[in-house]
Every structure is written in C-alpha cells, then in structure tokens.
Amino acid sequence: MIEVKPYKDAQSSKREQVEQMFDSIAPKYDFLNRFLSMGIDQIWRKRAINSLKEVNPKQILDVATGTADLAIAALKLNPDHVTGIDISNQMLQVGRNKISHKALNGKITLQQADSANLPFEDNKFDAITVAFGVRNFEFLQQGINQMYRVTRDGGKLAVLEFSKPKSFPFKQLYNFYFKYILPGWGGLISKSKTAYTYLPESVEHFPEGENFAAYLKNAGYKKIEIKPLTFGICTLYTAIK
To answer: Are 112 and 87 contacting, i.e. CB atoms less than 8 angstroms apart?
Structure first.
C-alpha cells in the first residue's frame, strides 16, 4: 500500500501531518461534511449504527471520532457509554462543544489517543466504529489489531470508508467531482487546500473491498461483510470478533 501524506514536502510522520491537517480544518469540518456530501454522510452513519443492533452494545468505542458525529449517532443504540478517541485535539474540542450543547456529557467521553496504541484494556468494548478514519491510520494493520484487542468476544466492528464507484457513467462523474470540484470548494471554505487534495489521493490508494477485508481477517475478525453504499462512493465493512 502506498503511503499518502497530507504535506508531501514535510519530513514529519503521517500521524503528525494528519493531526496538523485536522487541527487546521476543525472549525469548518462539520459544515463541509454536509455541504460536500449533500448530507448523504448522515445516511451512511445511520447505516453503520443500525448494523450494530444485533450485539446490543453497552460500551462503544468510536475511533477517529473527529467532531463526534458518529459517537452522538451511536446513542440511538441506548448504550451505557460511548468513548471517542482522535489524534486531533481541535477536532475533539469541536466535538466536546457539541456534546456539552446537547447535554450528553454523562453519555459520551472524548479523549486524545492514537489508533496504533489504544489506551484501553483487552475485551472492553461491545462495539467499535470508525467513520472515514482508517485511511488516515499511519499503521493500518496495527490499528486494526488494536481495535480487535479491545473488542470483546462476540463484539462487532463497523467501518465506513470512502471507495471508488465502478459503473459508467457514475464513475466518471464522481471522479470529476472528487478530483476537481471537491478540492476547490473544500480548500476555499476551509482555507486548507492541502486537506481536500489529500482526501481524493488517500481514497485512490486505499485498499478497498476485499483488500481491506484482508486486514480485518489478519487481525482475527470473522463474518466480514462488505456493503457498497450510494453506487460505491462509500463502503460499510462489518465484522465479528
């Protein structure tokens, strides 16, 4: 897998660059998600949460939680608690403000942590979610191994990640939007051209479909399912420990 970094000329690690990038766009992140996806991202998150109903999770971990959209959506499952982790403190601060505004402090806790070294004991969580974050892992297999470690036996993983449409003409229309329109609007609004240039590049080189499922299998996950959403723009991966 080719490693794609946000700042190509910088000598810092991918983790450091991703943290810097998300810190810089945090204030505009939620607006851009809604604007650039035309709201479809909210539908994808609902699909991910609904996929976890069968395990009736009481303890949920949301990895790469960002501004806590998925952590908040997970409350639909009536868990005892949701823990969200992210490497970007600025994204977490936006999330904390949302949680406080919604009076959800007793239900959701956010903390700064890295997917490569999750600060939790083995078998702690009934369910783990990741929405559009695995592309940004510096060490993909290590991050997945860590999620497997902290999932209880019988617990479930749900991963949302961008993928590439395959069918004509949607493939061509999507590629044009993703490579030209999205970086332009994203850079203009966020004031960070880098972030919305990195996005299509990271999707292009991400091991989607069966290739990503192989990482889940290597970690030990079973009953792996791959569900393309919205003509293949996004894929929902689920698996059981």
So the answer is: yes
